[in-house]
Amino acid sequence: MDELSAIKALAGLAQASRLQAFRRLVPAGPGGMAAGDIARALGVPHNTLSAHLAILANAGLIASRREGRSVIYAVDYAGTRDLLAFLMEDCCRGEPAVCAPALDCVLPDCCAPAPRP
To answer: Integer distance in angstroms from the first to the last C-alpha of the chain?
Structure first.
């Protein structure tokens, strides 16, 4: 991730409703949540939430898909990991392996393929 993309992502999170929406989507996992459910959970008008979700999507932190009449939003785990990796890139005086466990425990198992039976 480059600096401009990181600034865009951080700016996306730098508003209370957007941060709350993002944090609500993290535990929802890859299945995500319908926009209406997010709006109700946060007590935000649908049109206002729609604008907030568009900003988060443009920042590369969430993605959307249509399911019937609903738009489902989910965290873009690759984009989120890129932001976290950018923030910790120069961690530990050039020894990134020291910080790797911190990145590995963030968003656990969301990016890893499901174990096979």
So the answer is: 35
Mean confidence (pLDDT) of the chain: 86
Write phi, then psi, for 66 (nearest 5 degrees).
-95, 135
> pLDDT higher for 70 or 114?
70
Would you say how long the chain is, in residues?
117
* CA R_g for the chain: 15
Based on the structure, what is the number of domains in the chain? 1
* pTM score of the predicted model: 0.80
Evaluate if residue 112 carries a pLDDT over 50. Answer: no
Which structure tokens are listed for 3?
A: 């600096």
CATH code of the domain covering residue 7:
1.10.10.10
